[in-house]
Amino acid sequence: MFTSFTTRRVFPKVTNTSCAYFSKESTSSSQLAEKKETELQNYTGKSNLLEKKKVGIFGTSTVPINTNFPNPKGVIGYDPDFSVKELVAELPNTRKTQGAKLAEEIKDVFKSVSVEKTELLEDIGFVRHNEARVEYKFDTKEKLDLWKIGCDSDWKEGFSTCSLVNSDRGTAIFSGNISTKVLKDGRVERAGWASMKLEDRKAFNRKKFLSKWRNFSHLLLKVRGDGRSYKIMLHSPLSMDFTWGDSFSHPLHTHGGPYWQYEKIPFSKFFHTVAGRIQDRQYRVNLEDTSSIGIVLMDRIDGDFRLEVDYIGVYNDTTHVEDFAYETYTLPVFNTHGF
Q: Does the pTM of the predicted model rise above 0.85?
């Protein structure tokens, strides 16, 4: 904060200068100081670096994994800058698209009516040993559209690029280039990440939880990579703001070369992370709260990457009895986290 005393000391009378903040016209020192202060405030206070594209009322963010939500609500796709006119103009399209989704949901409910309650049977132990279930394929455009991609350049925080396309074999190819070059804006400290994330939601942006996986012991993937180490993330944000960054992670080490690899990752080995950071206090992933799955590359290695994914599913191994692979501890009744 400038004061009248420091202003007279710091900014003497200047009649002609090439500095960007000063006028070339002759003026008094007090006027120069006021102009300097105003221009400094404008310079530091106005930045459109994080300006984001507007999306639909029930649309989704173009950047799938970032807890820097663009609004206080923390709802992906909610834009507080929408005017009433824009909202009214968006209503017909919203009613059409979300209404169609709701109609499909109602049809599926009636189709699934059966004496056999599959989930109930699985809950009481009817999932066989070595039973596998493929949940997500990529052989059609509609299935591929459920997955969104993002990287640091989408947030104007880096120079990485990525893409997700269908192959002629009915698989998904996640590829691009990782650049760890840091944007020289004085704000970004690290860069170099790209991800693909499932954005499968019900009508009116309601979450779909992966609760059907609770009776299986492993996550199953068929992938063909480039030798780089990726990360599998099970996202479980809830309604409270302190859970928006919650996820459970496990590395995916690819072999490289022409051969497919079948990865079976126990759910007991997923560790708790918040905004990608490993937490001291660990606990097992709760699939009842998990609403999305993502694959992230952030290995701090510059260069091209390519990961081909055939399917993602779940697998059951009845001999796997491990509940949680990592050390946990019991807090006392009175502790820093509360009761």
A: no
